[in-house]
Amino acid sequence: MDSKGEPLVGVQGAKPLGLACLLTVLALSALWPRAKVQAFDVFDQPFYLGIAYDLVHAGRFTNGYFFQEPPVDAARPPGMRFTPVYPALLAGASAVDGRFAAAMDCLVASRGGDASCSRSASLVRWAQFGMLACFYVLVWGMARRITGCERGGWVGLGLALLTAPELLNYVNYMMTEITALTLATGALAAGVRGIAERRGRFFVLAGGLAGCAALTRPAYFYLFLVCAAAGFVLALIGPGRSARFRRVAGFAAAGVVVVVPWLLRNFVVLGDASLTAGYGPQVLVQRVAFDLMSWTEFFRSLVCWLPDGNGLGGMLFGPGACHRFQWADQADNFYAIGNGPLMAESLAASGGWPHMFSYLLHKFILAEPVKYAAVTVSLALRGAWVSNYWGLVLAPVCAIMTWRAAARLDWLFLAIALPAWFMLIFAAAVSVNQTRYNLMLIPAFAVAGAMAVEAVLARRRLRESYPGG
After folding, report:
1. What is the distance, to the nearest Å, from the Cα of residue 57 to the centroid of all Cα atoms in its chain?
2. Distances (CA, A) of 323 to 43, 300, 304, 311
3. Closest among 44, 114, 52 to 85, alpha carbons compared
4. In whole angstroms, how far apart are CA 292 and each of 77, 279, 335, 346?
5. What is the Cα Rg of the chain in Å?
6. Which residue in 237, 379, 381, 427 could disulfide with 437, CB within 3.0 to 4.6 Å?
7. Which segments of 64-163 are extended strands (E)?
8. % helix, strand, coil for the chain, step of 5
9. How confident is the model over 305-338, as pLDDT tens digits?
10. What is the b/e burial string over 217-240, where b = at least 16 CB atoms within 10 angstroms of the residue's CB?
11. pLDDT tens digits, residue range 276-295?
């Protein structure tokens, strides 16, 4: 229905799309100057910039200078700590943007130790700005299609744009967040359209984009596998199985075609047909360190990981009550334990990175499954509060709308909600689950908010139509 309650004739239209693009660009342009521009040695930027530098200067993917031990100046060998899409994007940008290339060279030459290195990366930041604008327009399109009305699209876009101040910070970072989010959201949007119109080509597009997202952030590879497996199971239920099976097969085949060349490269060059090697176990050991918390600390974490939970935790439990759960450089917080003594101990006990996952699985996860599951729930809540109170308000709304959609078999909304919930739980199970790992919740939360608004307005119209009922 449109904003007056009239049914939409389709969901296409150049004018609404143009208006959505214009409003999105204007809103982002107004907010972008306020976003932080950090030095290139902050957070995970050195990982990607180091690999991009080697790609430019040595012509091959490596693990980058950050993972080179000992830190020597000799040519770095081939590696696969990270997937290739984002380093390749940075390498391509450096070939065009000379100032960015010089800044990247300075970072690598000083191993992040020169504070005077430039932060110039205009081309990359403009590209990420454009990706972010595309992301918001995709959310608008999904909200419009799923709610079935123009107003629902605008409400969904308005709710999503409330997260722009946070996401624009990622535009300025040389990290994968914006690229991966846009690719994953594009896959969701293509899938929604494929379900709505029953056209196989949109499933192929969704699979290809999902594969690209997996080659940007490896966690999305597991989402691709789960979606493909669930799709094949659902395709076998009810009438029309043959057509549904072909559409799911197109999705799976497209994703495989995108990912396989990287797996083959890793097998030929490194003898390991995996997506990545080394970084996954490093993240997992950081995660299981949080299982060392006592049950008292577990219940305290539920408060400390709320938006502004440090202040609330200090008020309820005393000064410094939350420091064990945060990123501060203190030896007794769980992140520091996982990054330091527990990692060293696990490496020694397991016999190295290739055996680390099996060691952590048996030593920590299977040894205390109840504690592992409980901490996973707590970390999932921590990751759900995307954009702070925005996520805190809309998470329960999305949970209710997901339950209603499941009861009604509303596959359009389930197609964006279930992948987001899966990624939230997955990230909590295998990582420390910062909110930036869960930006995929934003489309689901925004569309759920639009659906909730439409449901409230529908009830109001019903009461006005039947005042005595």
Report:
1. 30
2. 19, 11, 9, 11
3. 52
4. 36, 21, 11, 14
5. 23
6. 427
7. none
8. 75, 0, 25
9. 999 888 888 888 888 888 899 876 677 899 999 9
10. bbbbbebbeebbeebeeebeeeee
11. 988 889 999 999 999 999 99
